[in-house]
Write a structure and sequence with these properties.
The protein contains 17 helices and twelve strands. Helix 5 (about 110-120) links the parallel strand 2 and strand 3. The protein has two domains: about 5-285, Aspartate Aminotransferase, domain 2, CATH 3.40.640.10; about 290-425, Alpha-Beta Complex (Aspartate Aminotransferase, domain 1). It is of the alpha/beta class. About 40% of the residues lie in helices and about 15% in strands. It has helices spanning about 5-10, 35-45, 60-70, 80-90, 110-120, 135-140, 165-170, 185-190, 235, 250, 255-270, 275-285, 290-310, 325-335, 350-360, 390-395, 410-425, and strands spanning about 75-80, 100-105, 125-130, 145-150, 175-180, 200, 215-220, 315, 340-345, 365, 375, 400-405. Helix 1 (about 5-10) runs antiparallel to helix 3 (about 60-70), helix 3 (about 60-70) packs parallel to helix 12 and helix 15 (about 350-360) packs across helix 17. The strands form two sheets. Strands 1-7-6-5-4-2-3 form a seven-stranded mixed sheet, sandwiched between helices. The protein has a five-stranded mixed sheet with strand order 8-9-12-11-10. Bound molecules: pyridoxal-5'-phosphate. The site of pyridoxal-5'-phosphate has 16 residues, from helix 4 and helix 5.
Length: about 425
């Protein structure tokens, strides 16, 4: 197997003699065939190829193959956003009447998707603490549980998931573990090596890394034995009438069934394809992902250490700090560091946070993270502004909490910017 640095640069696409060195952008909705028989084979999933970009496009497939290789999976697909990736990954094996076990420490958009929108579809969820014991985890499962879901490093809480523990519980109950690996990226953690079955990404974050293209990705490890649990997963293990009675798990095996079904049914019906143009931009980001992640971690660590010593700081959350609740577990799953996102609580609450952020010059106020440019957000005055201070505290988001996403700038410049902003609050 090639090393991840080499896969970042060259994975997924190997040009033949005289072909373009960079991946071509196949900016075409359709593909031409000589005979109807040729096309019919594609429609019947008897041959692989392209016929309409709503389902598949060569540019996307080059990039998906690179991400599959980076994660150590057998198949992958790109989606239009991280939201689409998480929805498809879950809905590919869940239906009305299904149940999901989910870590309570996840991205707000995913929480809403699962808790509100998927609930309307008749899919029920039990939320468990990311720190749940084996016993607590086992109690969350039901007859109709189809999947377990969590984030390696949660956005924005920055909790680190014990992937092995969650995988063990999932497998004991005959269901796959789906891990959103957006924050560490496969450069810093490969969840499949720890037992995850499906890995998802918002490629909008570090993978693109330049705040240029919204996108998502789903990777299958190829390890989950669907037919061994065929009563739980009829969509994969019984004939699909919309494809002439194909049974995905037998026709495409454990290595290909999940992504083939997800493409053939969900991409066909919901149409959340990533544009080939965005896939090209994503690939430019991936080419430097290994170099950038190391710098994001270096800057995150330096900023976290600076903040942890500052007298105006009440608390810092960053799993690279020895004092952090997740330091030990991060040493196991994230030995080269996690990401560049640090959160801290400024003394003086909401008004201090507001004054502090206004004074920042390099670190911009944005609803974004994981960008080359540093940015920050105070939930109390933005995403969570409808909540009172009491409600914020109950949700574990103090009014003075500021999330800083450390970009690729010089770390001394970032620290100097934070330092002068503290001075202005005094
Ligand atoms: C941003 C994010 C998402 C949603 O991704 P979009 O590309 O914005 O749709 C999902 N999971 C995590 C962990 C995220 O940070």
């Amino acid at each position: 197997m090639k090393n991840k640095e080499t896969i970042c640069v060259q994975g997924g696409y190997t040009p033949k003699n005289g072909e373009p060195r960079q991946i071509p952008i196949v900016q075409s909705t359709t593909f031409k065939y000589d005979t109807s028989e040729d096309m019919a084979k594609l429609f019947d999933l008897e041959a692989s190829g392209y016929f309409y970009t709503r389902l598949q496009n060569p540019t996307n497939d080059f990039v998906a193959a690179k991400i599959a290789e980076l994660e150590g999976g057998t198949a992958a697909m790109l989606t239009s956003s991280g939201q689409a990736a998480n929805f498809f990954a879950l809905f590919n094996i869940c239906e009305c009447g299904s149940h999901i076990v989910c870590s309570s420490s996840i991205y707000g958009g995913t929480f809403n998707l699962i808790c509100v929108t998927m609930a309307k579809m008749g899919i029920e969820t039990t939320f468990v603490s990311p720190d749940a014991t084996e016993e607590e985890l086992n109690k969350a499962f039901k007859e109709n549980t189809k999947a377990v879901f969590g984030e390696t490093i949660a956005n924005p809480a920055l909790t680190v998931l014990d992937i092995e523990k969650f995988a063990k519980a999932a497998h004991e109950h005959g269901v796959p573990l789906i891990i959103d690996n957006t924050f560490p990226t496969p450069v810093n953690c490969r969840p499949i090596e720890w037992g995850a079955d499906i890995v998802t990404h918002s490629t909008t974050k570090y993978m693109d890394g330049h705040g240029a293209a919204v996108g998502g990705c789903i990777v299958d490890s190829g390890k989950f034995d669907w037919m061994a649990h065929k009563d739980k997963f009829p969509g994969l293990c019984t004939p699909d009438d919309s494809y002439h009675g194909i049974t995905y798990a037998t026709k495409f095996g454990n290595a290909g069934a999940f992504i083939t079904k997800c493409t053939a049914q969900l991409m066909r019906d919901f149409g959340s394809i990533q544009s080939p143009q965005n896939a090209f931009i994503l690939n430019l980001g991936l080419e430097s992902l290994h170099v950038r992640m190391a710098r994001h971690v270096e800057n995150g660590q330096a900023v976290a250490e600076f903040l942890s010593k500052h007298p105006m700081v009440e608390a810092v959350t960053y799993s690279g700090l020895k004092t952090d609740k997740y330091y030990k577990i991060a040493q196991k799953y994230l030995p080269n560091g996690g990401c560049g996102v640090v959160s801290f609580t400024i003394k003086g609450g909401r008004s201090a946070a507001e004054k502090f952020m206004k004074a920042l010059k390099l670190i911009a106020i944005e609803t974004h993270v994981a960008d080359a440019r540093s940015c920050c957000l105070n939930p109390a005055t933005s995403t969570h502004r409808q909540l009172t201070d009491e409600q914020l505290n109950a949700a574990g988001i103090p009014a003075g909490l500021i999330r800083v996403s450390c970009g690729l700038e010089n770390k001394e410049d970032l620290i100097a910017d934070l330092d002068q902003a503290f001075e202005s609050v005094k």
